[in-house]
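User: quick one, fold this
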Amino acid sequence: MGNNSRPVPIMKRLIINFVLILADCLGLNRLFRRWNSDKIRILMYHGVSDDKLPSFYWTLLGRDKFLQQMDYVKRKYNVVSPEFLYKEGNSAPNKVVITFDDGLLNNHTVVLPILKSYEMRAICFVLPLLSEKNDLMWTDKLYAVLMSCRPGDLDFTNFGLGKIEIGSDLDRRADTVKNLQNQLKAVPHSRRTDVLNNIFNKFDLLEGEDYAAFRLMNRDLIKELAQTDQYFIGAHTNSHPILSTMTPDEQEKEIRSGMDKLAEWGIESVPVFAYPNGRADDFNNETVALLKKYDFKAALTTIDGLYDPSDDKFRIKRINIGADTGKWEFRARLSGFFYFLQGR
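Assistant:
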């Protein structure tokens, strides 16, 4: 799931940080941590990389920030295995499950040594077809291609999307790309595929290291990761479509083919699924029925919040961690104080 939305304006973020720092100094995070001790904090990450991109990109955290977050989790919380998402009866307080979506290469090269140093284990939800093809996530690839192409207009009138201006100002261009990503997430799967093929046939992704942070692990690296004590492997479909934009038959093919490929690779995946994009509108009752048919025990959304074990196990919330998640916000999200402030 790609996201290159721009960060919160500086003044607003300063005010929020002041409130969160004050709350931490007053012991409110400690209080809320006790209050929510029965909840499970499921941290949602994508990538960890210090590679420089043309603009802000929400899904890629810096290495130092991730280290700081893992250090805090190690000191204040209990990192547990995926079975705690669907099994009842364990009273260990303040449980955390760490998740990574998509299977980016930096989950191996950067994150693995960090998890090992803290003796932690995460779930990595992978995309076998894209990994086999040495391709990128379509959202990341769209960003990479359109941020590196020459300025000009793209005409998508034939696809019902009108004309899109690709300007020379990189921040504005990034906003344009983000808007196009959101538009494409909402259209039927077949039309989105047609639009993307149209774009990718016009523009080549430039070779080099500029977008190395978007690279996915190949099959051998995923198999290697599965053999470590730091990762479980989970299903995330075969190629990351928005499932609700597909027919039930298309959904089943996408879910089943991803599972079959992992089995072919000799990987025993956990019975927990992560919905691509993961918003409430990105999956439907047919999706849930299919997951149950294939013996999944739980499914993770990208809906932001703490998970109460009494909630629907196929609509599990996660704590969304991005490049703009600062130290104090991270602490407040884990304790639940952040969501209390939002009235949730």
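User: anything notable?
Assistant: The two ends are 24 Å apart (CA to CA).
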